[in-house]
Amino acid sequence: MRTHKTKTRKSLLRAAMVPVTALAMGAAVPTSASAQATNPCAPAAAVNPCAPAAMPSNPCAPAAANPCAPGAAAANPCAPGAANPCAPGAAPAAKAADASALPKGPYDTTVKATQAPYGNEMPNIVDNYLRASPYIGTGGFIDPTGIPMLKMLGFKTVVSLLKPDEGAPNEGDLVKKSGMNYIQISVPTMAPTADQVAEFAKIADDPANYPILLHCESSNRVGAMWALYRASKGVPAEIAVEEGRQVGLKTSREPQVRQDLGLPPL
């Protein structure tokens, strides 16, 4: 009987000790929160490197992996600096690239720029049309109804050698309305003057005007202008006259052109 009572007490004592032991063991095992506090290199801190408390609590996290670190600003393509495509300085660079793509003169075809149309006919638009150089077309009378088509064909500038009482009375307005530049160099004499040739040379040598359409009533004055212009650029006089003939110069105006170039008469 005494033995049975002794066993019963031990069992009760053992049962009473179980929760106490478990509690003691639980207190001995650190929780995840306390582990993080104890181990600043715990992986949990790398989950959110941008959290306010994360950066100071994890000194062992690699700096490159932290998008909130000061170095991360360098990865921003819009950050200030020379390599910043969003900076205001980027626009002038683009303009400079555009300028470098322009031809250097009426015969420069080393760049891809809009040229004057090929061919020797432009029905219902320009009489006696020809192409004197890659960026300069020539011809006679322009049909006013066809002026918008010139813009569609790529022309940017129209230079007229007509007198004020010749051609369509509103030609200049129609050209401008179609989105092209209009320049008039009225030539009432048998050949353009030296000042008029110099004025045309400035227009013809400026790539910003390309492609150009140079015209008059029949293309005779155009041929005279072209011959004198080419001679002013160093082309031998006889060759310049021949070029003028190709784009419309006729015997009615050639004597004056030859005289201006110091050539013997026909």
Report on the structure:
By secondary structure, the chain is of the alpha/beta class. It has a domain at 130-260: Protein tyrosine phosphatase superfamily (Protein-Tyrosine Phosphatase, Chain A, Alpha-Beta Complex). Helix content is 39%, strand content 8%. It has helices spanning 2-28, 32-38, 54-57, 90-100, 147-152, 171-177, 194-204, 220-232, 237-246, 254-260; strands at residues 130-133, 136-139, 157-160, 181-184, 212-215. It has a five-stranded mixed β-sheet, sandwiched between helices. Helix 7 crosses helix 8 and helix 8 (220-232) packs antiparallel against helix 9.
Radius of gyration: 44 Å
Highest CATH level, the class of the domain at 130-260? Alpha Beta
- Which sequence of strands runs across the widest sheet? 1-2-5-3-4
Terminal-residue CA separation: 158 Å
Roughly what fraction of the amino acids lie in strands? 5-15%
Tell me the structural class: alpha/beta
| Mass-distribution shape | globular
Treating each run of at least 4 consecutive H or I residues as one helix, how many helices?
Answer: 10
- The CATH homologous superfamily of the domain at 130-260 corresponds to Protein tyrosine phosphatase superfamily
Which fold name fills CATH's third level, the topology of the domain at 130-260? Protein-Tyrosine Phosphatase, Chain A
Report on the biggest sheet: 5 strands, mixed
List unreliable stretches of 5+ residues: 1-37, 53-57, 79-83, 90-97
Indicate the mean pLDDT. 78
**How many strand units?**
5
Into which percent range does the helicity of residues fall?
25-40%
SSE series: HHHHEEHEHEHEHHH
Name of the CATH architecture of the domain at 130-260:
Alpha-Beta Complex
